[in-house]
Amino acid sequence: MGSWVGFLAGCAPMVSSSVACMFTQQGRKGTNQDAMIVWEAGGIVCEHPVDFGSNKDTVFCGVFDGHGPFGHLAAKRVRDSLPSKLCSQWKAAMERGKESNNTNINGSVGSMNSDETSSLNPWMKNGKNMRTWKILRRLTWDVFCQIIQGEELVFANVGDSRAVLGTRDDDDTLMAVQLTVDLKPNLPKESERIKQFKGRVFALQDEPDVPRVWLPHDDSPGLAMARAFGDFCLKEYGVIAVPEISYHRVTKRDEFIVMATDGVWDVLSNQDVVDIVSLAPTRTTAARSVVDIAVRAWRVKYPTSKIDDCAVVCLYLHNSSLVSEVKTKKDASQELPSTKDATAMPGTVSEDKCP
Hints:
single chain, disordered C terminus
């Protein structure tokens, strides 16, 4: 699986809306294989608008991190088809009959995967949420996606992209809370499954901190994640495309969510990213700020390595909580230069075009 962004090498588009902004930048490894999308139900003008069961308070977000020589082509197809496919299945499920929706969500954060379908937590006991989970479970992708419906957030990820929440603690300090798990091959559950199907997991000597998945009798392909869309040569050896489903109920303390590919998380901590977003002068520049500082971090931490592609989506949970109102001081050394190849376009929330 790969990803695609709609710009020429060297360009870096930045788009924003009233609820989100996103930015991607090509690294030094060739074609940019990171992409992202934000769809506001009923709020975007495009050829095929998203309509999740006529729920106008729904937002769909996704970041796509590709790999391999044709990764950008595969990611373009997934990015362009996934929202409409999810929407059509959503509508079909709604038409098959609505279940009772009287149960409140008591939990704050939780997750379910393919081995836990029988463990119905409070979120799953809600009939509408059960339908949402069933729809997501039928889809497979090597990306991270999120659906927001009112105060309910549903995440689905395959691979190592990540979602982090910026929220306030009891002392009103902005803190980072990781909402998803990086599905790396060295996770005990992932490693056990891969080895059960005769796949191998080990790291190379020159990168001991990067576990990879290998064929039983051949030192290839060396996939650095335990779940992926595509990579068919490893599907018989434990690499699956079943998304990890997580959820979160938004509270008044929650301010924003940052979704990013591993090019960001490899060099910045969760708290680093949350602080950067909170220090951005406007919502339209928050994602750009994260990417710019991540690129700088790559040059400092890994001066001999090629900078990875970076893609970031910042989603704001409360329209009244402006980033510029956060009472923190921005260090002068973190001032970001303006560039001619990045222009905010208010009201536009699709990275390239709608499916």
